[in-house]
Structures are given as structure tokens and as C-alpha cells.
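Suppose a classmate hands you a notebook page containing two proteins, each written out with its sequence and a corresponding row of C-alpha cells. How would you begin to make sense of it? This section walks through that situation. The first entry is reproduced here exactly as it would appear on such a page.
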Amino acid sequence: MSRRRPLGQSVAMGLRRGVRGRCPNCGSGRLFGAYLKVRPTCASCGNDNGRYPSDDAPPYFTILIVGHLVVAPLLAFRGIWTLPTGALLAILLPLLAALTLAVLPIVKGAVVGVLWALSQTPTA
């Protein structure tokens, strides 16, 4: 009989490892070969990381996170309503682009880690 890991522990472990950009299986190999390119196999443990489809979820979650962290609080500031539109766009667009590009690999690693954990859990 195989030993079952509790679902919460494996998801949390996969999430932690993925956020750090590490292989969700061993935690030591690098998950990405380039900016957002997942390495097909882990160099440390040989895990097939290419089988976890993380195509549409990371951009969706990144937009959701950045939107709530930046746009929502900005609406509470009085200065946002008095600045000229051109100046506001010149300040916010580079900020939003930089924050989105910084958060996207973190979220993609987290999604791969969660997918790894869910595939490790027995369905029976």
C-alpha cells in the first residue's frame, strides 16, 4: 500500500518551491530555463516539469494581483483625480508594466508547483 501525503502539505510545498523558481519535486533544481520557459526536465531529479500546463492561469492571476495591489489603492488617493491624464499615464504605465513583469514568473512557478502537487495526490 502506498503512503499518501496530506493534500495541504503537498500543495503548500509545491507552492513554496514554485514561488522560489525551484523544481516542485526536489526543490533544488531550477524550474525555469529562461524568463518564463519551464525546463522540460529537472537537472537534479529528472522530474518531467514540462507536463504541467501553465499557459493561461499565470497571466490571469498576475493581472488580478497587480490590479488589486496597485489600481485599487490608487483610487483612494485624492491626487489621482487631480493629476493631468498624460502625467498619470506616464507614471502608472511603466510602474504597472514593471510590476507585472516582475510578478509573472513568481506566479507561473506557483501554478506549476500547485499542478505538481495535485498530480501527486491519489484520486482513489
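The notebook's second entry, a different protein, reads as follows.
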Amino acid sequence: MTKKEKIFYWLKSAEHDLDTAIALYDKSKYDWCLFMGHLVLEKILKAFWVRDSKKEVPFTHNLVELVKGTKIKLTDEQKEWLANINSFNIQARYPDYKFNFYKLCTKEFTSKRFDEIKEFYQWLRSQLI
């Protein structure tokens, strides 16, 4: 794959996951909506990684670490926010953590964070093109 094809792959995958996150939100599956929201950001950051780094995309879900491999300039506040979004990556978590996360993800909690994720995604997207 060319660099351009790799970037396109990560962008298309992020868009697909955003559609999935929206569908999950609409079905009140708030914990999974935020999990998918994390994946949206992870994948667009991997598109930046491809654009900015000569190294292969790492096998990490850590958003802050992914930013370090790019030329994206973030404020300390944005870095802290991304670190908080990292906690939405629940795929490999223990059942008790998943249940506590599920209880945390009320409509109000999720709405605020999902709106922030979508806004940040659009901001990133505007910088990639």
C-alpha cells in the first residue's frame, strides 16, 4: 500500500466507526458508543502517524502515545483530555471494570463526551486534508 492508501484506509475506518458510534448512541448503548468514539480518534491519529512518521503504525490504543508520533500540536489541556478518553478503551478490561464503566455512562455523561469526541475528530480531520 502507498502512504496515501494507508491514510485513506485509516480515515475510512474512522468514518465507519463514527457511524457505528452514532448508531450505538441512538440505541442507548452508551458504554459501547464511547468505546467506538475512542476507536474513531485512535484511527484518525493513526492516519496522522502514517502521514508524519517513517515508522510503522504501532499496535497501541493509547491516544497520547499516538500523538507523539505525529506533528500535531496539542495544548496540555487537549493532551489531558485525550488521556481521559483512553479510559473508554474497554475491550480488554476485566468484567468489574466494564460494569463500573457501564454504570458511569449515563445519557448525560455520554452526550457530553461524545459531542467532544465528534468535535475533536472534525478538528483533526480539518488538519489532515
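A careful reader of the second entry would note: The two ends are 19 Å apart (CA to CA).
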